[in-house]
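Final report, section 2: Outcomes. Of the targets proposed, Type I secretion outer membrane protein, TolC is the one most frequently requested by collaborating groups, and we therefore present its record in full.
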Amino acid sequence: MLLVAAPVHAQTSDVLSPGGVVSLAADQSPTLRAALLERRRASQLVLSEEARYTFVLGMDASLDIGDTPSLTQVGVAQSYHEQVVLGAQLSRAFEWGMSMQLRVAGARQFRRAILLATIPTPIAIGPGYSFDVTLGVTQSLLRNGWERNGLAQLRQARVELDAATASRNRAASELVRDALSAYWELWYARQALEVDVEARRVAATQHADANARRELGSVAPADVLSFARQLAAMEETVAAAEGELRVRQLELARVIGGERSTALSPHDEAPTLPAPRDADVIAIAIERSPELFELQMQVRSAEEAERTAGAALEPRLDLSGELGLHGMGYDDAGEPFAQVGRFAAVTGMVSLEFEMPLDDAQRRAQMERASLAVEVAERRLEAARDRVRAEAATLLDRASVARRRLALADETVRIAEELARAEQERFELGASTPTVVLEAQSELRNAQLRRLRAMIDLVSADLQIAHTTGELLDDVALDD
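The predicted structure is given below as tokens.
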């Protein structure tokens, strides 16, 4: 972006182009930054949900050691035991409602215990070694089964990402529209000030000339007062125009964002007048409007919520199975592994578990609530489409009227310039009055301001159309 410093009204000013204003706003606007951060947050939620179904490794170890007293026929005897267990488990949940656990555990145990009450002397048992491999699988057949519920949160996260993208696009388009509108309003305020300053200069020149001619006796004192009144009125007008310029500078600084220690000033170049648009704009607005796209994402979000409404209260039927391989050795650490390797000891288990609420009212209420939310979102989208359609038609009419006003104002300015020049010449020849001259000059000033106003109204209407059709998104770079 190019910033050129130049003194304007004895004040340091940043001279900006329309493109520079858009770049500054995109870099500094807190509103757009918040929308970008919200989209980034939504994208992280998607990544989190995509990583939900991953393998989880668990490891554990335990040591159990000590003496245990017991009663015998001859008194109290002490038994000693020690056991060390090392285990590891790999588990994963799947999106279709299945969970799997693979566990491997090894143990070493040793005991000195009293086996017969009549023989109170402890007998050593062990050391013994064991190794177990267990695979457990559970598949939900109803409530949590299949991808309808398993991927619900991922689908919802993706919808939220799309909604955040739509919100970001709308915020960016509104920012470009507001920044350019504020820029051209500031341009108009400065051009209007220049028109008023020129009118004040003419009034001052005429007042000085009338004073000089009064001293020569060719102009009556009352005529001099007329020019003095016009000069005083133009001084007031210039002061008001300078105040309006400062207001527009502050408004543009607000839209851009950030702290600014200098005034903002637009380039002298007039805006490039937009080409006339046809009625196809209405259909394009319905298809590409950032506002409608955001509402469409709200409908999708409500539909996704409806898809899984009441799922937590549906009947649950889980099918579980477990397969185990076991090995054990006495004073031989390698024997358990050999037994597992040749499937010497195998166990298996299959089970079914069913659960259902006896009252279905809560589930039906949740489903009805979700269905109503979808209908509300659809009605809001329908109302927004009608509004966008009407606004697009209204903006087309506003642009057409502004274009016609501009063409008529051009002709009015040309005529007013000739009339003001002719009345001034007639007054200098004594064939006109100060009142007529001042009226001609006032008409010229008003015509110039109307032309400027029509120009900015045309640009503003086209900016609003471009926002409605999503065209302004091409003017700002959006990071992901």
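The chain has ten helices and nine strands.
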